[in-house]
């Protein structure tokens, strides 16, 4: 069953009407003309709605339960994925998945957050909130990529690193810092893509690349709009205002130079056509890796250094 967001209610009503007419249509009653008119109206309404989404509405789209996650992108655009688990210190963290894969004919090390699609998988993947062992696993895989000369691709989709006491006891802050450092020190090309939510240091730890892509309706921020609103206004009800002020959208962040490229999504968001969204992302990542392949290791490090020093200035 389709899941509609609050601002999509007019679209849901048209879809419901189309379903009713399709059920009633048969040999004795031809409703094809009316159905076609409704489909045209729906297409126009859907395109217009998604062309003028507010930052808060984009946040809702980025969190849509049907939005493709790491495993969906693996299934649609990568081949021969071989997961490599464990941080060799404490445990396996299923919120962050990584391993070897092929993008076309190119072998890469692929790392990303996985949120899960249902209650069971969301609990197993901890809603995409990485623990220290997840970030240490990412560090291990990035170091391996450097040794074997394999490009690194990361798919970022997290509301933030796991904030639990046990994570802090195992060195969450240090693990995030070390993962960020590992990204910046890589001697091989690295492309990061914000595919859903890019939340705080938990996202930056896998996104400190020389090229950062962002899906059209993804969001990327230092804190969630609800968290920001709770701090500034003492109420999460101000989240829409916080989202507007924080410039969380791909369009705003491209203007600010925080990201380098926006990957277009199908009309109505990636959740309406995950395969098309994945194909667009795969093409963009391949083009970026082709471009970065011309640089020597020391030039790649310089590109990252210049990129982040420019943002800090």
Fold and architecture overview:
By secondary structure, the protein is α/β, with parallel strands linked by helices. The protein folds into two domains: 6-52; 58-312, 2-enoyl-CoA Hydratase, Chain A, domain 1 (Alpha-Beta Complex). It is 50% helix and 16% strand. It is built from 14 helices and eight strands. It has helices spanning 9-24, 32-51, 55-62, 70-77, 119-124, 132-148, 165-169, 172-185, 200-204, 225-232, 239-246, 250-256, 274-292, 297-312; strands at residues 79-83, 96-103, 106-113, 152-158, 190-199, 211-215, 219-221, 261-263. Strands 1, 2, 3, 4, 5, 6, 7 and 8 form an eight-stranded mixed beta sheet that branches. A hairpin with a 2-residue loop joins strand 2 (96-103) and strand 3 (106-113). Helix 3 (55-62) crosses helix 11, helix 4 crosses helix 13 (274-292) and helix 10 packs across helix 11 (239-246). The longest helix has 20 residues, at 32-51. The N and C termini lie far apart (48 Å). 41% of the residues are buried. The mean pLDDT is 93.
Topology:
Elements: H1 9-24, H2 32-51, H3 55-62, H4 70-77, E1 79-83, E2 96-103, E3 106-113, H5 119-124, H6 132-148, E4 152-158, H7 165-169, H8 172-185, E5 190-199, H9 200-204, E6 211-215, E7 219-221, H10 225-232, H11 239-246, H12 250-256, E8 261-263, H13 274-292, H14 297-312
CATH architecture of the largest domain: Alpha-Beta Complex
Percent range for helical residues? 40-55%
Total helical elements? 14
What ranges have pLDDT less than 50 throughout 5 or more consecutive residues?
Answer: none
| Count of domain modules | 2
CATH class of the largest domain: Alpha Beta
Our measurement of the CA-to-CA distance between the termini, rounded to an integer number of angstroms, reads 48 Å
Query: How many beta-strand segments?
Result: 8
Radius of gyration: 21 Å
User: What about the largest sheet?
Assistant: 8 strands, mixed
Helix-strand pattern, N to C? Answer: HHHHEEEHHEHHEHEEHHHEHH
| CATH-defined superfamily of the largest domain | 2-enoyl-CoA Hydratase, Chain A, domain 1
